Amino acid sequence: MLEGKRVFLRHFVETDAPTLLKWGQDEHYHKLAAFEKIADLSEAQTASSQYAKRLYSYALCLKSSKEVIGLVELYERGMDLQGGLLKTKELGFLLDKNFEHHGYMTEGLALIFDDAFGVKGQTEIWAGTFSSNLKAQKFLENLHFKYMYTADYSQITNLFSYQEKYYLLKREEWLKIKQNTKS
């Protein structure tokens, strides 16, 4: 568990299924975060079980009520030891729309970044957003992520018709930010 002032991150448990079901049935989360569609409680329990098995998948919870208000994940970008991909991760995040604009996700991500860069030895964290998700792009920029490139997935396969913008936060940049906030 990673703990901040107002939030904490813990691994998912089966009792998180109703929250996942709520998000999985809301078009808002499909459109902005590509969150999977979940039809019923049984599917939500399966999803909860899958999240629980992922090493770097966390439920974002309020300390005051223990309520799950979001999710944060770090994904493997590849297993290429020679290319250094084991030292990089990709970020995924979702915040319940009822808890936006309170700084909860910023606090939760700071916990993840401190752990990834300080404890786990990661050198880079990447994040992708749909090109239409300007709110997420601005959020990443506020966290000092730098825009790197846009991938047009419609050029790769006709199964996808979207573009995704990719952002990068390097360990050195995060450590500089942390140092500046302490002074």
From TrEMBL:
<feature type="domain" description="N-acetyltransferase">
    <location>
        <begin position="6"/>
        <end position="146"/>
    </location>
</feature>
<dbReference type="Pfam" id="PF13302">
    <property type="entry name" value="Acetyltransf_3"/>
</dbReference>
<keyword id="KW-0012">Acyltransferase</keyword>
<dbReference type="InterPro" id="IPR000182">
    <property type="entry name" value="GNAT_dom"/>
</dbReference>
<comment type="similarity">
    <text>Belongs to the acetyltransferase family. RimJ subfamily.</text>
</comment>
<dbReference type="GO" id="GO:0005737">
    <property type="term" value="C:cytoplasm"/>
</dbReference>
<dbReference type="InterPro" id="IPR051531">
    <property type="entry name" value="N-acetyltransferase"/>
</dbReference>
<keyword id="KW-0808">Transferase</keyword>
<protein>
    <submittedName>
        <fullName>GNAT family N-acetyltransferase</fullName>
    </submittedName>
</protein>
<dbReference type="GO" id="GO:0008999">
    <property type="term" value="F:protein-N-terminal-alanine acetyltransferase activity"/>
</dbReference>
<dbReference type="InterPro" id="IPR016181">
    <property type="entry name" value="Acyl_CoA_acyltransferase"/>
</dbReference>
